[in-house]
Amino acid sequence: MRVLGRIRLSRSSEESTSVERQRELIETWAKANNHEIVAWAEDVDVSGAVSPFDTPALGPYLREPASNEWDILVAWKLDRLARNSININKLFAWITDNDKTLVSISENIDLSTWVGRMIANVIAGVAEGELEAIKERVTASKKKLRESGRWDGGRIPYGYRPSPIDTGGFTLEKDPETFPVLRRIIEDYINGKPIRVIADELNEEKIPTAQAGISDTPTQWRHGTLGRILNSRALLGWALHEGKPIFNKDGTPVLRCPPAVTMEEWDKIQATLQGRRWAKVAPDRTSPLLGVLECWECGGNMHHKRYRNKPSGSYTCANGCKQPGVNDEQVLGTVNEQFHEILGDYEVLEKKVTRGSDLTQELKEAQETYTDLSEFITTATTSTARKALFAQLETLENRIKVLEAQEVTEDKVEWTPTGETYREKWDALDLEGRRQLLIGIGVRVRARQLSRGYRNRPGIQEVELIVPEDMKQRLINRP
């Protein structure tokens, strides 16, 4: 009869069940029983938890037309086929329905008898128990690594690299090449530079993303790549489990790596990311005043009205206010004039921030974790579980008290002159650069169309350039 030899390994380094050993045993069995091996279904680095119907090599032989090429499926042991009783029974049913035969050399199983099927199910149950035990050991090992602050494997956060430690295993340390790039990204974004501009600058300077897994295109920075980095809690350096921080016995967060941001910086980054999500527009479709122009009547954002993916020539209120569209070229010209008139002669100031101490966000995290853990008390059915929960709650309670007692110190902000006027900076930028400048310094424009224009005569508009009060005071008070 025609034999399909089945070989499977979870890891190619398993010596006792190596590919060569499994192949040798199957060949010996086939020769002893006068059968011919017509094909091999060899899956290496494939878990026994995967259904045999879904495995890369064996799966196709369990479907037509390949299922017509063999008569007997032979494996060294039953767990080479599956380690799950449900999956193994599905395979048994398929074998029976398709008039095939299954042989397990080690267990000497014959599926043609009810005794053989019963034994096969018992063995499959044992194999499933072994798989669960392996999963529990892996989970416990990763839990121990997280609680000790060691790296538990997986993707390495950008800006870091694994470093061996004397007691065994690895921890994450700052990468001397990529961590300065990470800090540059963070500081640029906090200071108002859009993600798209940061990505373009990094690409222009040919700074590689450096680490596999950070981006689908490793040599190019993308908007999504930077967004994921800035939105990752890995920036805090905390060890996390299911999105929640892990705490030491004294209530402080377990650090997996040196933090890249302070809590204040993290809070600002997330607030900025949340505030800018509405303005995700393709660069070639971004209008010159998107995110800057607001409706005179309701204060809502005004969008460039488009027809067949092309600008129609006017801005309309996103909230649907009943008023004429604002002519785009006319309002853009007025903004240019008012910017020169109001801000043009003032010197551009560069913001430098010395971070103070504010543990508000860390306190919030500890309080939320305390609340989450409290909800598990009613579900804890054993004294051991309740004892562990109460110990964690006591640790968190002590940490909350420490955080609440901490004194908050404000950030120290200094504005230093750059030697460049706003007129010079404005005139050197293109339309998109000017839009980003207005957004970065917080300038808004409100406008309304009082009368419609004609081909040779523009309509009447009312336009106001709104400069933030704190910016006015800084510019006026400069000597």
Automatic annotation (TrEMBL):
Keywords: Coiled coil, DNA recombination, DNA-binding. Gene3D superfamilies: Putative Large Serine Recombinase, Chain B, Domain 2, Resolvase, N-terminal catalytic domain. The keyword Electron transport does not apply. Residues 157-279 form the Recombinase domain. It holds the Pfam family Recombinase. PROSITE patterns: RECOMBINASE_DNA_BIND, RECOMBINASES_3. Transmembrane segments: none annotated. The keyword DNA-binding applies. Residues 349-406 form a coiled coil. It comes from the Bacteria. Residues 2-149 form the Resolvase/invertase-type recombinase catalytic domain. PANTHER family: DNA-INVERTASE FROM LAMBDOID PROPHAGE, SERINE RECOMBINASE PINE-RELATED. This is Recombinase family protein.
